Amino acid sequence: MNAVELALAKQRLQIDCARQRETFGQNIDGLMPLFNAADRAHAGARWLIRHPEVVAGGVALLVAVRPHSLQFFWRWGQRSFFAWRLWRDSEHWLGRFRIRPIRKGVPSCSAPYADGLGRP
């Protein structure tokens, strides 16, 4: 294949890619409302994480208005705390099953000789 044929093949591939991008863009238009809603929900969750006082104020207002909701929030608070601790401690538990890195002196695939130390 000479340089001209190679350049033509490259140009054909670029044209095909442009056509595929255009087709994909037309087909994805129907899903844009779903993506926009997901983006808004993600932005709202980030805002709530940055402003926890709003959540605490809402919970306090609900407890003041409906005293029986205190038991509900206490129960779900305990469950949430347990789930958070489980998630936090899972790093320690899962660390036991991770593959350890190869130590020095242990043969590896990149070693030129079978013993991994560079000796025949």
Short description:
The protein is 72% helix and 0% strand. With 120 residues, the protein is an all-alpha fold.
What does this 3D model show about the protein?
It is a single chain. The radius of gyration is 29 Å and the shape is elongated. It is an all-alpha fold. Helices cover 72% and strands 0% of the residues. The model has no long low-confidence stretch (mean pLDDT 82). It starts with a helix and ends in a 25-residue tail after the last helix. Among the domains are: 30 residues; 40 residues.
Task: Give the tags.
mainly alpha, 120 residues, 72% helix
Beta-strand percentage range? under 5%
Shape: elongated
- State the helicity in percent bands: over 70%
Q: How many individual β-strands?
A: 0
Mean pLDDT: 82
Radius of gyration: 29 Å
Residue stretches low in confidence (pLDDT < 50, at least 5 long) are none
Largest sheet: none
What is the first-to-last residue Cα distance?
A: 44 Å
